[in-house]
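User: Structure tokens for this complex, please. No commentary.
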Amino acid sequence: MENGYLNTEAGPLKINAAGEVSTKKARARKKAGLNKDAVMTVLYPVLFGILVLVLWQTQVLHKILGTDTFTLPLPGRIINIIFENVPAILKNVQATVIVAVGGLLLGSVLGYFLGIVAMAFPKWGSGGISIASAFTAVPIVAIAPILNNLTKDLSDDPHIRSMLAKTLVVMITCTVSMSINAYRGFTELKPFSLDLMKSYAASKTTIFLKLRVPNSLPYIFTALRVSVPASIISALVSEYFAEFIIGVGRQIRESIVLAQYATAWAYILVACAIGILMYAILLIAEGVILKGRRHR
Amino acid sequence: MKKRIAKLLAVIMIIAMVSTSLAACGKSADTPASTPAASTPGSTGKYYDKSTSAESIVKDAASKGKVGNWGLGNEYEVQALLAKYGQPITFLSQAFDMDGFDNDTILLASAMTYNELGLVKNSYEGGYKYGDKVGIIDMNDEGVAMLEDNIFCTREFAEKNPNTVKAFLYASMKGWEDACNNPEEAAKIVFEYGSSVSSEHQAYMASEVKKLVETDTSGASVKDYGNMDDKALQQTLDLAKKYIQLSDPAAASKLQSMTLDDIRDVSYLKEAMASGGKFGDLEKTSVSIQLKWLPQAQFMGYYVALKKGYYKDVGLDVTIIPGGGDIGETTAVYTGQVDFGVTWVSNLIAANAGGMDLLEIAQVYQRSGLVLVYKLN
Amino acid sequence: MNRVKKVLSSKQIVTLVWVIGLIIVWEIGATVIAQTKRTPEYVLPHISQIVDSVFSDKLVNGSQTATQIVLSNAALTLVRAGIGFIIGSIIGFILALLMNMFLPVEKIAFPYLMMIQMIPILGMAPIILAITKDIDKSRIVIAAILTFYPVATNTLAGFKAVEKAKHELMYSIAAKKKDIYKKLLIPASLPYFFTGLKISAPMAITASILVDTLQGGGGLGCMLSQSLKHAMSIYVFWQIVFFSAIIGILSFYLMSVIEKLVSPYKKVRR
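Assistant:
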């Protein structure tokens, strides 16, 4: 997992003869200092966080930023609001998480499937993928209302249909990065590996299952690293426009419009926590699944 | 060649899949139209009769969960009405169009007399052409009216720049008086200032806004523009205390202890109107006002004052900033980005409860412009 | 036959076929919608209707046609996006440099960079507004914040991707730290830096449009939300959707062109 987060979009590092040797050495070195490294990874940000919190609570931060305790309420007050409203917050968190995770799963599966289709017809597929990447340039604020209108007839229950609309928005944002990365995972194979498989007279299905799918695994995680934070953000934004009033994002908006900044901050904190938690789960899953695979 | 055919098949399949799913969306549109409003007590069709009382309409729509409002601080009057008739105070989030009302997802929809109601009734561009086939429930008649568009600034700004505030009020009220006397001309002026609403709708809006500015909640006519009527304001504050739900315990308790003196100051308007247009040295000559919504005849008084030079006459250089975004007018005024703002009294109350110190200096709309609209059989 | 094949397999044709395919799917959808909805233009209008609105000379507000509104507001938004993007990429690059030089900086900054990305813009906006006291400045700042993350992470990845062997070579010739950065690390990280730019350029535009919606004034986002709130012809909305997509793609290619112009290396990746 070391340095794994660095490849957000550049893709897993290229593996060549020299690189392989050097990374092995690096790993050996890292193992010896692993404990110290791990401690630093946790300790530094935590210390920094405590420093910021102290500055914040003592209002030094307000002086630096030139703002006041109304726009940037004190941490104590924010925490208090969270504790006072646990049931309401949980209800909103639940709605947001269902949308974010549901959209993420649907989008990723669809994206992976599109990656397979694109691989099967490379000439047309790669063109399609570059078109698909154009969709990312359309802002979510534009997609959300369109989908709201399109899903009006799907259910009589506004709660269900607005859930559907929100999930679709998240799905769209997650599909693109997965399809691009899956396609690359299927096609950017190790040099000569394809020739080797062919020399065994392996069938296309065998090549796909034994070579391409395993090869695509790290790329799946590359895609997820982009789409997990994106899924949260688009879930929050799609809630702004949804028909049924629920969700962490919607509460942030309502609070800001009504000038309840302390409440808005409480929900912002909750949104951050959801994001960090989902990202942590992703990193752990990646660590477990890709153990010993990366830099093979 | 085989490959080519396979590709072709795949493409056709995808197109077929997408189109059937789209077609499915489309088809299901026909079905819900037949289901809604399975007859009201004593009703002869799927909507409401002219003779049906407001109470039974509200009860029926609420029991079906089909009462709509935009939320975001616009919902308190509707909630008060629902509570008045013993209904749960939940509502559907209404979009900024009347499509939901049109396709029956909302039976009892919120509408401003000067905007959405016009779109529902009239047949100009963007209109839904219902004409007289709709009925309304008026918040003023139901006794749950809350006051809307006002002029406000921060208490600090008012105390530091009293002459500027008075000059601004004087010129603005002159603009409102002029606009109400010539609503058609006012509509034209607003349209020229970059309103994107069609000019016909603008004219309709101006005539309706005139009624709100010159009539109070009981229907009596008001001639002193901007008057802050204590009774109406107190009713607004009382309803606000009941229906503004704040999660922040500090803000909630501040809301409950609020009095009229925390939200308005009548002295500036009084002195402004008594001054006869002379204000001594202005502390600040270049000021801005943030509207609550997009440029439209809802705010015609300011545009008229700008166009006819009333602001210039008192020595002010005024910039009008349209609203409509998520950073509300209260925040814009509070951060000092603009000097004056137009907001609803309930929004000002919520903002002050949250910790702002805003001050209403004039009440432009004398009665509530919010109605609930329903279709007639 | 061969020539036909060649033409057919060229990249432009592939793209063209895809675009035509998408148009067909869109039109099928639009036809279905047109038959079942009262106001189909709000859900899915025909493409021809949108194209018509581009060339129509009907005024949609006091003085401008739909296209004029889109273009004049696009200028505002793109300028803000551009300034935010430049500031964001400079900060991103410097931060990556610092993170690579000092391990504690990397350890501290990384989790917080992630967190900043998680804060919804709407939450950030009032605070930034309170600090800058000017909506246009805060729009630029927000565009910068949202774009510097991809640049920072990708550039850092570029620094890290330099093979140990090359590092060791530099050490063996006793190169100074400054020289290592100048001669080895910075050139080697350039492709990654540009990958970051290519991701963040469309993001800067998207962010800029999103931030426009926060308050009135001018900009594509304002017009988008006005149009959605039925205060303006709905075709302004559809034009903006297409316009933003096209500009997003163009910004991506613009970065590729700049990369080709400035890069001292031969493009070998992919």
